[in-house]
Structures are given as C-alpha cells and as structure tokens.
Amino acid sequence: MRLYRGIRSLILSLFRKILFLWVRTDVSGNTLQALGLDPEKPVCYVLQFSSLSSRLVLEQEVIRARLPGGTNALPVKNAPSHSFFFLYKRIGGLFRGGRQKPVPTREFTDLVTFGLEHPEQDVQIVPVSLFWGRSPDKEKSLVKLVLSDTWSVAGRLQKFLIILVHGRNTYVQFNQPVSLKQVIDEYRDNEQKANRKLARILRTHFRRVRQAVLGPDLSHRRTLVGGLIRTQAVKEAIRETAAQTDTPPEKVRLKAYKYADEIAASMSIVTIRFMELVLAWLWNRIYKGIAVNNIQVAKEAAQDSAVVYVPCHRSHIDYLLLSYVLYKNGLMPPHIAAGINLNMPIVGPILRRGGAFFMRRSFRDNPLYATVFNEYMHVMFTRGYSVEYFVEGGRSRTGRMLPPRPGMLSMTIRSFLRDHRKPIVFVPVYIGYEKVMEGRSYLGELRGKKKQKESVLGLARTARKLTNSFGRVAVNFGKPIVLADVLDEVHDSWRQEAYDAEYRPAWLNSAVDNLAQRVASTINASVAVNPIGMAATVLLGTERMAMDEGQLIRLMDNYADLLRSYPYAETVTLPEGDGKDWLAYCEAMGLVTRQPQKLGDIIGLEGSNAILMTYYRNNIQHLFALPALIVSLFENKSSLRRDKIVFLVSVAYPYLQSELFLQYPQGDVDGVINQWIDVLLEKGLLLALDDDRLSRPEDGTEAMLRARILSRFVIQTLERYHITLGILRKYGSGALTAAELEEQSTLLAERMSILFGLNAPEFFDKTLFRSFIANMQKNGVLTTDNNDRLCYGEGLDEVAEDARLVLSVEKRQAIQQVTMMDA
Questions:
Q1: Which of 166-170, 229-233, 300-304, 370-374 has the lowest mean pLDDT?
Q2: What is the pLDDT of residue 148?
Q3: Which CATH architecture has domain 531-711?
Q4: CA-to-CA distance for 120 and 753, rounded, in angstroms?
Q5: Across-strand partners of 218?
Q6: Where is the Phospholipid/glycerol acyltransferase domain (predicted)?
Q7: pLDDT at position 96, please?
C-alpha cells in the first residue's frame, strides 16, 4: 500500500508539473491570516466536482502557499502532507458533460463518519472554488458556451479544451473553513442527515461564491436592447410621445431603440482580461501600491444580492481602479454608470466593453429617454447584475464629499419597489489618493477656469503624466447598506403596496434623502488617512504654513494618537509608521519644502502646493471635526462650563453633519461630545477646573500649541457660518431671499480670503453657503414669507453671539466692518 501511494504521488506530481507548464493562476484567500485556521486542528480542502485538473491545481496552490494539511488519523489522506476531497462524483464519459448529479463521493461520507465516531475531534473543512477563465454565459454564442467555465459542469473533452483556451487565466479562491464538529453535532445519531446537512452547507457555499465570481448570465446586447423596447413602460412612453409630438409611432420606436443602444453596456470578458493586463502595468507605473481593505464585505454581499457599488468620486481613475480591484479579488466587475461625455471615439467602445453604460447629464425634459434608461436600470437590478455609480454626480474638486444627487438613488429605489425578489445591497467605497492625477486642473477650475471637455486629445495629454509617481492608493470598502432595511425605517408597510414603473409614492423623497445621507456618511466613515493628509492638516493649521521639523513630527504623531484614542469608525485606516516616516514620504513626493536652519530645519508649503494640499486635508477633515470644534470654543474664552460646551457644539453639529457627512445621529451626539471632552482632558488639550468648568491649556505650552492648531482644522467652516449670520443680521429679518444671502455671503468670504491669505478655495464656494442656508431653513432657524424672503427670530441673535467665541479679533472686525456698511 505504501509503495502504491508513493508511485501514485509521483505520477500526480509529474502531471502537476506538466499542467503548470501551461496553467497560470490568480489566487485569493490562501494565507493563514485570511483563513483563520487553528493550527491545533487538522484541515481538509474540498472542491465541488471531481476533476483531476482541479485537484492538481488545488494541490499546487496549497503547497505553494505552505498551508497546513490533515493528519494520518483522517480517512482522507491523498497527498504526502495534505488532505483533499471532492463533494460530488463525476457522472458521464469522455464526451459527456452536463450538470453533475448530487452523488457525494466516498471520501466525503467517510469524513462525516469519522466526525461522528470521534466527537472530540474537529476538522476544518476549507472550501476551494476554481474557475477556468471566469466567463459567464452569453446567449447565442456557441464558442462562449462550449469553451467557458460556466454554471454547467464540463465533460472531460470540454474541460481539456477549456484548459487549453483559458488555462492561463485560472482563478482559485480559498474560503473560510467550515467546522465539521459544529455542523454534524446535531445529528450524532443519524449519519444520513449529517451527510445531507454538510452537503447542503457546502453546496450552498459553492453556489454563492460562483454567483459572486461569475455573476448572472450576460445577455447578448442586441437581445437586451430589443427587449427594452418591448417592455410595457417603454411601449406606453412611445405611444405618449408619438401623440404629443404628432410623430409616427414607428419613428418614435426607432428613436427609443437608438436611446437604448446609446445606453447599454456590452460587457466582454476578453476586454476585461485585456484591461486587467493593461491596468496592472499602469498601476505599477504610476502608483507605489494599492491597499485594499475590507473587501470581504463586497464578497459576502455579491453572493446573494444585486450589489450597488457607490464610491466617492475624486478622479477619472476611479472607474478603472474599482473594477480592477474587484476582478483581482474574484468578483465580477460591475456595470458602471458613465457620463455620455466619456463616450468618445476609441475610449467609449473600450469602456462599454468593460461594463460602462452611458447616461446623459440631464433627461428631465425627455420622458422617452428617461423611461428607456429607467427600464435598463430595472433590468440590471432584477437580473442581479452588480452596478456602480457615483452618488456625487461629478468629481470632487475640493477633496470633500459632495452632496449626493438623488437621481440614481431614486431610480434604484423605484426599481426595487416594483420587484424586490432580488435583494439590493449598497456597498460604499472610499478611494483615497495620495496625489490625485487631476489635482492641478482642479486648482484651475476652483479659480474660475472653465472645465475642459473630455476628448481623445486631452487623454493623450494626460498620458504624458504616466512618468510621474502618484504615491499609493487605498480602496476601503465600507459597511454595507441593505436597501430593504432603509425602506423599513422610512415606510414599514412598503411590501404590502403595489408599484408600477411610473408610480412615485409620497414617501419616496424621504427614503432617497435617508439613503443618500447613509451612503455619504458611510463613505466618509471608510476614509484612508495617509501621510500627505496628516502633513497637510497640520501645516495648513499654522499661520504661515511652516513649522519646525521636530515640532511638525510631534504634532502629526499627537493627532494620529487622537484618532486612535476615539476611533471614528472601525473601517477608517491609518498610515503605517510615525510622523518622521510621514514627513520623509511627503518630501519624496515633492509636496513640502525644507529650509535648512542651524536651530532646526523649517518645513513648509509653497506656491501651488499650498493650495493643492487643502485637497488632501479636506479628505480627512471630518475625522477631527468634533474635537476641533470643542477646542475652538476656547479661542476667546479661557474657561467654559462642560454643559455649555455640549450645548454649543450640539447647536453647531447639524450644520457640520450636513456639510461633512458626519456619521453620528443627532440624538446620540451629546454622548459623543462628552466622550471627546474626556479624551481631550486625557491628552492635556483641555484642563479640568472646579465647578465642572474646563479651561484651555496655559499659554506658551506645547499643549496650547496643539489645541490652537487643532481648532484651526475646523475654524474656516465656522467662519463661513458667521459670515452668513452677520449678513442676515445686517439686513434684518424679511429683507433677503436665499439666493441674495448666498451671493452676499460668497462675496464677503472671497474678500476675507484675500485679506487674510486663506488658501482654501472652498472657503467661498457657493454650494457650501447654499447648503448652510438650506439647513437653517430645514431646522426652523429661518422661515420664508410670501415673497420668499428669509425671516428669523431672536434665537438667531443668540446663536450669532455664541458663534463669536470661535473668531479671532481681526476676523470679527473684518466681518463687522462689511456687515455694518449701509445696504
């Protein structure tokens, strides 16, 4: 027997080496850390269907990753140091494939028997999924059907051809182990039921992984486009448009077909594989690495649900980067909503085959187009395709999260109300760049330069930047948001109501607002803090944007320690190393300057870098918002009662929450404020006095410097609020409309930016003033009269007086000088 096993092992080893002369694998989850294996327990690796080639690939990857194996005590021992088995036997001959019958293998039943006979012994069963080529089915494509690793099980000849065609693009995924003891404990006296239960768990697991990796079957594009035109909603839209425009129905139908053809993606696995190779080369050329965090969230969501990926939008690279990360981690790339401006020659067809579907910026006045687009989205969701869109609409030019636009979120909710058999899960994604590729063009646009239209020539100019280094990139996946749970909170009886394609329930806007807020705040709760953001935050908090090297290093370490002391969220990631490492990195990236000096080198920001660094500071500003707001109250007050601090911060919080998309509900914020006060006391940034009073640190101390710079992280936001309040009080209640107040506030902010040398372009951003005014109306601080003029009561004067606590004397005088002028 030992001789037989030795010969068998030698033959299999030879076959494995021959196979890997051709086969190339991409593997995920094959580390002890990822699997969480207990070294004290034996391990068995299981594949779903009996296949010699799959068995050889599995054995090679286990050996290559140095993963632990089973013991001689196990009935499954088919390699010198590892245990493997198949869940189901192969049925059929050389030319016969077809779906496997659920007939468990002898090794599987022997393992269950072993578990029942040895109740004290546990076995870790690691399911392993293997895909040759990762190609989903595509209707009306014989070659695709025959030579792809699809949901059906291939026969031996077909498997040989699949390996020949796709062997160099093989994906292997190791998954979390299943405890044999836990599964069969319930059926110690019934071996048949124990067999069925373990088989069902493993079968379900393999099905869910296959769903996530391959996705639903891809319909032929012509079939999909033609099907859209035949839907009831589009037929009615065609009839209405024909009647309203006095146009023959056939002509309108042709227009609807052209709309559908303009919109629809044409995802091609060949294109995706090609793009994978190109992008791998591109990332290695321009980036120093891509850090992916919490990807398991997306893997779990994709197994049972239609996933909507909602990333923040900072760069055109976002489209490519997220699809690349998902594909490399064993997930089917999503269909991506892209602006019609990207449907340009050469680029457009490639993006379309990579999964992009194109949408016009506005189609409010084109009901026919709107109906076709809505029906396309409905098909995506009901068939279970993963979809990606940017809730911000456009790229953020300031580095902050932009207010979500309701359009795509509303379409998603309405589609789900029509047919909610397939769950929809939103997966927020934070994409953080240490150096954004479009940074310089963003500066020009913020200064008033017209945004350049996308073109092939512009793309060629961008390609010249590929010789530059843009640092590292972080892709952080946030906590998933189940759409059904959001609807339950807003309208718990939604499942009992009927909805058609055009119906918009009265509570829809409330549901969209709730979902938008959760998506934006969850993206921000997944932020990746990097060395550039830390250096920018500290240096921009100084008056001259320069600081002693040692002091800068200490402050970066101190503020990072502040984030660790009271973590904003478990999905926030902090950079490795310390302040000294971060400073060296910023210097290597060319974003800070060093001025040698005998008493200690000076680190500073100069020229356009000083403005560009506000972008990276804004990426993480929300993390420091509450502690910065607390210490800013001591700008003009040496001490305050604790309850007064909590009151003032809670009054300002709704506006900060709306602007920075903070995650804490308003009902919980008092507790959060008190916890931050305790942390600030512990770190010496506040001092405790008698009678529940708190004071700032003593002047001239290191603690006072830390507190003062921390307060400046949020001070410009508060100054903008005070500008608006000052103008309101200048003109009086009932004198200004919201648009006039917005315009006056923007002009005064721009003036102060010049007078005080403020380098933050968003300081006089109209949209921020518009949001602040809208929130005051929402919170009842402002009301409107019959002429749409803003009215307020005495409460506004009290808030304005309290807000003066955070302003320096010079800025109070500058605001007062303007607001006291005659209207």
A1: 166-170
A2: 53
A3: Orthogonal Bundle (1.10)
A4: 73
A5: 138
A6: 307-434
A7: 47
Q: Which of 130, 131, 164 is CA-nearest to residue 46?
A: 130
Cβ burial, residue 406 (10 Å; 0-12/13-18/19+): middle
Q: Is the dihedral of CA 603, 605, 609, 614 positive or negative?
A: positive
Cα 576 to chain centroid, rounded: 21
> For residues 108 and 576, what is the distance between their CA atoms, to the nearest angstrom?
45
Same CATH topology for 531-711 and 715-819: the answer is yes
**Cα angle value 809/811/816 (rounded, 5°):** 95
Tell me the CA distances in angstroms from 355 to 212, 343, 742, one per residue in order. Answer: 16, 13, 41
Does the pTM exceed 0.90?
Answer: no
DSSP assignment of 153-178 equals: PP-HHHHHHHHHHHGGGEEEEE---E
Cβ neighbours of residue 87 closer than 8 Å, sequence gap 6 or more:
46, 47, 48, 49, 104, 105, 108, 199, 202, 203, 206
CB 528, CB 430: distance < 8 Å: yes
Please state, in angstroms and rounded to a whole number, the distance separating the CA atoms of residues 396 and 393.
9
Please provide the CATH number assigned to the domain covering 715-819. Answer: 1.10.10
**Domain 267-524 CATH class label:** alpha beta
Question: Pairing state of beta strands 178-179 and 290-293?
Answer: unpaired
What does the chain come to in residues? 823
Per-domain residue ranges of the chain? 2-214, 267-524, 531-711, 715-819
Whole-angstrom Cα distance, residue 350 to residue 400?
Answer: 30
Neighbours of 762 (CB within 10 A): 21
The H-assigned helical ranges of 431-530 are: 439-446, 456-463, 483-490, 508-524
Report yes or no: 338 and 388 within 8 Å, Cβ to Cβ: no
User: What does the alpha-carbon distance between residue 435 and residue 525 come to, in Å, rounded to a whole number?
Assistant: 21
Kindly state the average pLDDT of the residues 724-747: 89
- Reported as a single tens digit per residue, the pLDDT across 614-665 is 899 999 999 999 999 999 999 888 899 999 999 989 988 988 999 999 999 9
Residues 6+ apart with CB under 8 A from 95: 155, 156, 157
Nearest to 224 by CA among 252, 258, 266: 266
pLDDT-above-90 percentage for the chain:
43
Write out pLDDT tens, residues 25-61: 889 888 888 898 888 888 999 998 888 888 889 888 8
pLDDT, one tens digit per residue, over 414-445 is 999 999 989 999 999 999 999 888 877 777 76
End-to-end CA distance of the chain: 102
* Closest C-alpha among 127, 123, 129 to residue 183: 123
Give the residue among 666, 651, 693, 600 at the shortest CA–CA distance from 798.
651
Looking at residue 651, its amino acid is V
Which amino acid does the sequence have at 137?
D
pLDDT digit string (tens) for 52-107?
A: 888 889 888 888 888 887 676 778 766 656 788 889 876 654 444 444 456 888 88
- DSSP letter at 666? G
Distances (CA, A) of 245 to 254, 314, 370: 15, 41, 16
Q: List all residues 6 or more positions away from 36 whose beta carbon is below 8 Å from its beta carbon.
A: 176, 177
